[in-house]
Design brief:
The chain has two helices and six strands, in the order αββββαββ.
Length: 76
C-alpha cells in the first residue's frame, strides 16, 4: 500500500515486483528484503523516496537475496 501511494506500480504477474517510472527503477520486495535496480544515479533518490513511508536500514552492498548470490552490473 505504501509503495503504491508513492507512485510505484505493481508489475502484472509478479506480486513482489514494482516499477517507478519517473526514475526508471524496479523494486523487488520479499518479506523484509528490498532490492532496487535501475540507473545507478537514481538509487539515492529512490531509496530516499521509499524511506519516506517505510522504515528501512541503510542500503548495503549486494550479497545474498532469496538464497542467491548477487553482484552489481552497470551497463553504460
Amino acid at each position: 500500500k505504501q509503495l503504491k501511494e508513492l507512485g510505484f506500480v505493481k508489475l502484472h504477474g509478479f506480486e513482489q515486483c514494482f516499477y517507478y517510472k519517473k526514475l526508471d527503477l524496479h523494486l523487488f520486495v520479499y518479506v523484509d528484503g528490498f532490492k532496487l535496480a535501475g540507473p545507478k544515479n537514481h538509487f539515492k533518490k529512490g531509496w530516499s523516496l521509499i524511506r519516506e513511508r517505510i522504515k528501512l536500514d541503510e542500503p548495503t552492498k549486494l550479497e545474498k537475496y532469496l538464497g542467491c548470490d548477487h553482484e552489481a552490473v552497470f551497463i553504460d
